Amino acid sequence: MLARLVPIEGTETIDASSRELLGRVLAEEIVAPMSLPPFRASAMDGYACRAADITATPTSPGQPDDILLTVVGNSLAGHPSEDTLAPGTCVAIMTGARVPDDADSVIPCELTERVDGRVRFDGTCPRGQYVREVGSDTRKGQPLLVAGSTVGPAAAALLIAHGCGPVKVKRRLSVALFSTGDELVAAGSTLIRGQIHDANRPLLEGMLGGAAIDIIDLGICPDTPDTLRQLLTRAEGADLLISTGGVSVGDADHVRAVLGESGSIDWWRIAMKPGRPLAFGFTGADQPWLGLPGNPVSVAVTTLMFVHPAIDRLLGRETAWPLPLMLPTRDRLEKDAGRVEFQRGTLVVDEQGAGVSTTGAQDSHMLSSLVRADCLVELDRESTGAAIGEPVKVHPLRAYGTAPF
């Protein structure tokens, strides 16, 4: 699938200080326009001094190792002292404040005693102690962020700290969504016999929502080929089309047939549970399309495993697959061989240590299990389940986002 998808073109420019930059995908590499820190800074509250002055100069016969330095100024954050420092003198300094040019070490204040305008120090003070050198974090000209990076809070702070200005980002990816089914009605509607509320589109919008994506909600499509054809014309401007339902083998499942009239179906049905009827192809407008199953749990799991990587590819960024854990199961897990299975589970820590429990029945219509789950348990294709205490592969959902479901 990913090999068939081509990253979108088009960029926007956003100032590094703007909140609008959060969540956007960089279209170019960002290089440091300055070193950080831009000056030598103190890593401690204390006294900036010359290491050469720290010699065994007795202050009294009983204290042969004490050093006395005269305090000649203060260097505060944002209010630096003079750069010159005569031998035998020091400057009181705060964490983050500029270290005078003539100083090359900082003595922590907790190792000193202030006595009549002088500071007494007992110990050694190597050159460079508690001094943050220019560029000790980053050097001017050093790459900060690569193209395809998503700008999160830390990346935004990095750009602002370096005084970066306008930043080029990928334009927003437009994703068109629709659900299929005569039984579906919009949220808040009064149900009549045989109807259910469409929960799939709100679920998808929540899982896909982000600053880098524009959602186009096409609503609910009745189970008629002509209505579906009309809906597809409304979706032609989108970068990606996603449908839920209508991709199985029922008499009312028309999505694959209609898409295949002018487009192409690359593949249909996968050896995965939940999510078997998943389909992928292109519309007649050469628009990539993912046809998700109709049950909400299947929608959630296939979105994590297929839709998110497809969106990453279209935005030109790498998919960061979280590393799974191997944990013993606290329950017997049932499974038939033949498909990879992702079962909903909950992480537990008890007197036995860390483990995983099942949320119970694993039917793909059970939305309540998505709410209870904080992980997915992956059982491989040939597995026939797992006995109590057997190690299983666990995917914590928090690794996919704060609340991916």
Tell me what the structure shows.
By secondary structure, the chain is an alpha+beta fold. It has four domains: 2-37 and 136-170, Molybdopterin biosynthesis moea protein, domain 2 (Alpha-Beta Complex); 41-132, Beta Complex (Molybdopterin biosynthesis moeA protein, domain 3), CATH 2.170.190; 173-315, 3-Layer(aba) Sandwich (Molybdenum Cofactor Biosythetic Enzyme, Chain A); 325-400, Beta-clip, CATH 2.40.340. 15% of the residues lie in helices and 32% in strands. The protein has six helices and 28 strands. It has helices at 153-161, 200-208, 225-234, 255-262, 296-315, 367-372, and strands at 11-15, 30-31, 41-42, 46-49, 66-75, 89-93, 105-108, 112-115, 118-122, 131-132, 143-145, 166-170, 173-180, 184-185, 196-197, 213-221, 240-244, 264-268, 272-273, 279-282, 288-292, 325-328, 333-334, 340-350, 353-358, 375-379, 385-386, 391-396. It has a six-stranded mixed beta sheet, with no helix packed on it. It has a six-stranded mixed beta sheet with strand order 16-13-17-21-20-18, sandwiched between helices. α2 runs parallel beside α5 (296-315). It starts with 10 loop residues before the first strand and ends in a 9-residue tail after the last strand. Mean pLDDT is 93; it is low at 56-64.
Our estimate of the beta-strand percent is: 25-35%
Q: State the major sheet.
A: 6 strands, mixed
Helix content: 10-25%
Class by helix and strand content?
Answer: alpha+beta
- The number of helices is 6
CATH architecture of the largest domain: 3-Layer(aba) Sandwich
The spatial strand order of the largest sheet comes to 7-4-6-5-9-8
CATH class of the largest domain: Alpha Beta
Number of domains: 4
What gap, in angstroms, lies between the N and C termini?
A: 23 Å
What is the typical, i.e. mean, pLDDT?
A: 93
- CATH-derived topology of the largest domain: Molybdenum Cofactor Biosythetic Enzyme, Chain A
* Poorly predicted ranges: 56-64
Query: Outline, from the CA principal axes?
Result: elongated
Going by CATH, what is the homologous superfamily of the largest domain?
MoaB/Mog-like domain
Radius of gyration from the CA trace? 31 Å
Number of E-state strands: 28
